[in-house]
Design brief:
This protein is α/β, with parallel strands linked by helices and about 425 residues long. The protein has 3 domains: about 80 residues, no CATH class; about 150 residues, Leucine-rich repeat, LRR (right-handed beta-alpha superhelix) (Alpha-Beta Horseshoe), CATH 3.80.10.10; about 90 residues, no CATH class. Helices cover about 15% and strands about 25% of the residues. The protein contains 7 helices and 21 strands. The strands form 4 sheets. Strands 8-9-10-11-12-13-14-15-20 form a 9-stranded parallel beta sheet, with no helix packed on it. The chain has a 7-stranded antiparallel beta sheet with strand order 4-3-2-1-7-6-5. A hairpin with a 4-residue loop joins strand 6 and strand 7. It is elongated. Keywords: Leucine-rich repeat, Nucleus, Repeat.
Length: about 425
């Protein structure tokens, strides 16, 4: 009978001197069995660690003073022995395996016939059985990349940079404990949807690859809740999917040195976002929803922002409004529930990206669009200069649901500019 866990050896309190020795928890293989040869010795408990793979042995029969099992469901228990007077504190064990092990230990203590006990040979442990699980691996050259060996399933941080990878290794997608994945400085062109199955992933670095798109399926995966840091800088991205704004856990996003011509129209939904960098792209303006962001640091340097001109509107008004437009506006303005079980999916998508007029009303395909100037300090505490002239202003889209709303805006604009 063998149990993998962590073990801490503590000497019991000695009343005569008031001392208590304390060990240090170490990964161990705990075995219940007979010594090699089977002679002379009854059943023993053997604890093997990386420091002592041959193991320390403790007699079991009539030698277990007490078992502490209050936290057995959490994989914890303590075995108190009479001779030597020590407590073996077990932790980080599989709860089911621990229960089975303690049951066999209790029977061995009571002197149950060894023939009916699930005993194991008391032999030294292998390195792989007692070494601490590997949680971090950094590979920075092609020659060091493992081609035949699997990645340790215990990995929480994996970096494979400068390895000339053309795709994400399928073996990486099996590392369910990954919290940080760094695939920077490779030749990756596309991301598999199964990357979203890494339920613990908090940081994803894809800096300096050949990505031309970021999958909407990834944005609708478990990454919605877990992903906090995303680096897509130095790729070939021209746009991000509408679903990108479903990654509600994002705190830090880097989009520098791409070919982005727009940011997602619902970017304001990223309420946790604090650091945004999209320098040296091809952004002509910012989406209307950008006003809703609350950032600590913003960098939009080197984008070819257009000069705002509120007096030259893009008029897309349809007068009279179509029945579809009227129904869509009413659905959003009155917050009427809708979904793909009620409406065609393309209508749901259109409703999801509806524009908002200055008056607060919604508009879908009938609107007036202009660009106005916004000082980026309205959305960020620290702003990197937008250009070499020391400016921190950028053009942002503005929508109106009717000629009346636009004319009211014009009156205010002309009055303020005297």
């Amino acid at each position: 009978m063998r149990l993998r866990c962590e073990v801490e050896v503590l000497s019991q309190l000695l009343p005569s001197c008031g001392l208590q020795g304390r060990g240090r928890a170490a990964r161990a293989l705990v075995s219940l069995g007979r010594p090699p040869g089977g002679g002379g010795g009854g059943v023993y408990l053997m604890v093997c660690t990386a420091r002592d793979r041959t193991g320390a042995r403790y007699k079991v029969q009539q030698n277990v003073e007490r078992l502490f099992t209050r936290f057995v469901e959490q994989g914890k228990a303590t075995v108190r022995l009479r001779e030597p007077a020590v407590d073996l504190r077990l932790s980080k064990a599989n709860a089911s395996d621990l229960k089975t092990f303690l049951s066999a230990l209790r029977l061995a203590h009571q002197g149950t016939d060894a023939g009916v006990l699930p005993l194991s040979p008391l032999v030294p442990a292998k390195n792989s059985e007692v070494e601490k699980p590997k949680t971090k691996m950094i590979i920075t050259s092609r020659r060091d990349y493992p081609l035949t060996k699997s990645f340790p399933y215990s990995l929480e941080h994996l970096q494979t940079s400068y390895c000339k990878l053309a795709r994400v290794d399928t073996r990486v997608l099996c590392l369910k404990k990954l919290r940080k994945l760094d695939l920077s400085h490779n030749h990756i062109k596309q991301l598999p949807a199964t990357l979203g199955d890494l339920v613990c992933l908090q940081e994803l670095d894809l800096h300096d690859n050949h990505l031309e798109s970021f999958s909407g399926a990834l944005c609708c995966s478990s990454l919605q809740k877990s992903l906090q840091f995303l680096d897509l800088s130095q790729n070939r991205l021209r746009a991000l999917p509408l679903e990108f704004c479903e990654l509600r856990g994002l705190v830090n996003v880097k989009l520098d040195d791409n070919e982005l011509v727009r940011l997602p129209c619902r970017v304001g939904q990223l309420s946790r976002l604090r650091f945004l960098s999209a320098a040296r792209n091809k952004l002509p303006f910012l989406p209307s929803d950008f006003r809703r962001l609350s950032l600590e640091n913003l960098d939009l340097f080197g984008n070819p922002f257009e000069q705002p001109n509120p007096l030259v509107p893009n008029i897309q008004l349809k007068i009279p409004l179509t029945l579809l437009e009227c129904a869509a506006r009413a659905t959003i303005n009155h917050r009427i529930p809708y979904g793909c079980h009620l409406l065609p999916s393309h209508l749901c998508e259109d409703l999801g990206v509806a524009k908002t007029c200055q008056c607060g009303s919604a508009c879908l395909s009938s609107f007036i669009q202009i660009t106005v100037t916004m000082n980026l300090h309205h959305v960020a505490h620290t702003v990197v200069l937008v250009d070499n002239m020391g400016g921190t202003d950028a053009p942002i889209l503005c929508y109106f649901c009717s000629l009346h709303c636009y004319s009211q805006f014009l009156d205010r604009h002309l009055q303020s500019n005297g």
